[in-house]
Amino acid sequence: MITIQTIDGNNRMSTQELLQRIDAAVSRGESEFFIEASGQHDIGGPLWHPEGKQLTFTVKNPGQRVGSMCLPGTEVIVEGAAAADVGWLNAGGKIVVRGDGGDTTAHCAAGGTIYIGGRAGARSGSLMKHDPLEAPPEFWVLKSVGSFSYEFMSGGIAVVCGYGCQPEESVLGDRSCVGMVGGKLYFRGQAGGISPKDVKTASLEPEDIAYLASRMDDFLQSIGRPELRAALTDWAEWRKVIPLTYEDRPKKANINIPAFRRDHWISGGLFSDVCSDDGQVAGLVATGTCRQRVPVWQDSRDGSAGKSACSDCKLCLKLCPEHAVIRSEENGQHRYEASGGRCIGCGVCSGVCPRKVWEMRVNSE
To answer: Residue 280 carries which DSSP code?
Structure first.
């Protein structure tokens, strides 16, 4: 085992130097590490051993993203608590935190296993996903998770054991499971604040109990709490969260913006005390007075200093993507202008003009 101390007197090793030392040691064939960290980020991944050996990192005091993008064949064990983003984008490693995990633990996890031996913070488990070609990611928490957890979860398995959380109103925090469309979530204890438009709760089926029973020992052994098995295996205390099908989800009516502005919006608009709101909606690509820049055609015949005479090559007319350039002729003299109703201020006319007769100016309207 190689030991790395990140404090030398009053000097702290940077994250970059620590990761470079780890990478060099792995390249030499080292596979076991004890790291006395001091807030360095991204310890534990993504790495792979040149001989295919398992990589094991035992870490104290890590910074954010410990085990981020962790790969199969890597195990990260955190002695104590860990900061935010534990196991971010976990891709197959095993990450064990023998204490609390920070906000967004297991965020975007797509593989592997994450065990938390305490609580996990807000938005934990959000955006978990499952590649059907691989085993689903697993995310177990001994106690509870913070609000907004499991947002937009689309795959994987999450387990919240609720140990020591009986007085809490919700072991899943508030506004959990918003936008959840897939995966499985098991919990023990009270769970208020679950998004009713996205999910529902149900009793465990025999296959749910079989899964929890088969994985409970590994979880408790990994976090150093095997004595809790009896307390956590009364399956009558457990429930599961099921995403609603598309057919069961409440449907939103099509929004008619003009009617909404007329019937529900603040009269005169939000800023009616300082300016007038005529209700005009600016398009994604602006025209008219909403343009940031406008093309102005001026050649030497107008007396514009430094301008050449337009050669009437018609490049601007041919290449304008919005067909906004208009050519006119009077008394044998041609002129060009851009239609404000069609021009988007892209500047093509100015760019292609060989004599630089077109000029883009800031719209002062």
So the answer is: P
Q: Give the integer Cα–Cα distance in Å for 12 and 28.
A: 24
Instruction: Express each pLDDT in 101-148 by its tens digit.
Output: 999 999 999 999 999 999 999 999 999 999 888 999 999 999 999 999
Residue 139: beta bridge partners? 114, 158
Closest CA relative to residue 106, chosen from 71, 148, 139, 72: 139
Contacts of 144 (CB under 8 A, 6+ apart): 119, 120, 160, 162, 165, 168, 170, 171, 172, 173, 189
pTM of the predicted protein model: 0.72
**Contact of 27 with 2, CB cutoff 8 Å:** no
C-beta separation of 337 from 363 below 8 A: no
Tokens of 32: 């076991």
Tell me the pairing of strands 138-141 and 154-160. parallel
Rg (CA), the chain: 31
How far is Cα 169 from Cα 178, in angstroms, rounded to an integer?
18
Reported as type and span, the H/E element at residue 74 is strand 74-78
- pLDDT of res. 277: 76
Q: pLDDT tens digit string along 36-57?
A: 999 999 999 899 999 999 999 9
What is the rounded CA–CA span in Å between residue 36 and residue 169?
37
Query: What is the separation, in whole angstroms, between the first and last Cα of the chain?
Result: 71
Q: Splitting the chain (365 residues) into consecutive groups of 10 residues, what average pLDDT does each group show?
A: 95 96 95 97 92 96 96 97 96 97 97 97 96 93 96 97 90 95 96 92 97 98 97 97 91 77 78 77 77 86 62 94 92 89 92 92 84
Delineate the domains of the chain, giving CATH numbers in brackets: 2-243 (2.160.20.60), 280-362 (3.30.70.20)
Indicate the SS3 state at residue 353: coil
**Cα separation, 121 vs 103, whole angstroms:** 4
The pLDDT mean for the chain works out to 92
